[in-house]
Structures are given as C-alpha cells and as structure tokens.
Design goal:
The chain is of the alpha/beta class. The protein has 9 helices and 8 strands.
Length: 241
Amino acid sequence: MQLEFLWRDESTLRHELESVSGFRLDITLTNNTSTMMSVKRSRIENKARLRLHRMFLTANALVIRALATWLRRNRCSRSSTVINEFIKENRHQIEHLSADRATRGKDGRLWDLAALYDAVNHAHFDGKVDARIAWGRMPSRKSHSSIRFGSYSQEENLVRIHPYLDDPFVPEFFVRYIVFHEMLHAHLGVGESPSGRRRIHTPAFKRREEAYPEFERAAEWLSDSANLRHLLRSRKRTFGR
C-alpha cells in the first residue's frame, strides 16, 4: 500500500505526539547525522524532552503512532521496528542536507537555513524554487536602529537572511516565515503597477503571504516592538565585548 507523503511544522508534530502519547512535550528538531532521536522523560510531571531529526516532519500516521508508543515504552520492539524502517527509508534526507551544506555555505550557530529552505520549498512551492540561500553579513557597529530580516536578489537568484535571526531568542516559526517570504519573491518575481512602476509586494504576493499557515503568528511576533529591542540590545552587547 502506498503511504501519503506529509509535511508538518513543529507545533503540529508536537500536538500529534502529545495527543497519542499523553506526554507534554518539549521538542527540539535537529539535523544530527548520527542520533535521529533521543528523549528524557519525567513521568512524575508527565513531561518529556524530545530531540528528533527533521525527517520526522514528513512521517505518516503509522510512524507517528509508533513514535508515541516509543515515548511511553521505549522497549516496545514493534514500535522500534517501524521507526527504524522509517529512518532507513529517509537516510537520503541526511545525504541531501550534507550536499546542500557544501554548496550553500556555512550553517548558522542555531538555525540551519538549508533545512528550513527545503521544508518550505516542499510544503509551499512544490519544490520549484531554485534560488540559493545564505546568511547575510553581520552589519557594522553603527547599524542599530532597524533590521531588514531578509532580502532576495533577482540578479543573483539569492535569498539572504539577516544573521541577527540566528539567535535562540528568535522562534523557529519566525525564521521559517522570513525564509518563506523571500522565497515567495523568488517564486513570483517582480511585478509592475498599471503605470509600469516596479512592484514587489503585488496583490498576488500579499494573497499568498496571508495564506501562509504561520503568517498571523509571525506577524504577531514581529509587531511586538520588545522583540526588536531585545535583538538590538543583544547585538550591542556582542559588539561591546
């Protein structure tokens, strides 16, 4: 029987696993090339800290159930067999990531742009965006009043993400949204107004952006001025060392 290929975000994965396992979960997604999953349980508080390779974002319902059972009973041989088979079938994701790292430049300290790019490309663009992606340069010490979180160069076919976002303070869903926003520029290109003027955020662009599943969540985070102030303050401390 052919199983449907799925993609979900981190919050959806957590919800699915919590619903089946009964644990309250703190999930960290990784691109580890050796350990695909690990867990620390606190049965007294009914909580668990789970580290998973990003390949599990594409897992079908059978694998999710097996993973939830493994969370409850890590010695369940049937669940382990299902999970190990899934990992074996998805080893290409690790190999593909390794190849991307060689062509897309160095990863950030925290966020892996290649992995975020691939997930967004598959989920929202059917894998059709072929732009490159990279972290931008760290700005000069004088640049402390604003942040341009991302940009897309049509001439270079290159998405750049501001290095300030490579910070534990910034949630993954927001970095992923910025990646999506710039990839949408690459996908739709530059439009023109009725008068012939260059137009980047066209009505078509805005419709696609507002339909993005995490748009409202990201917009809410962005609208909180305290978040920007936090990033600027943390970078001032970094430059002042």
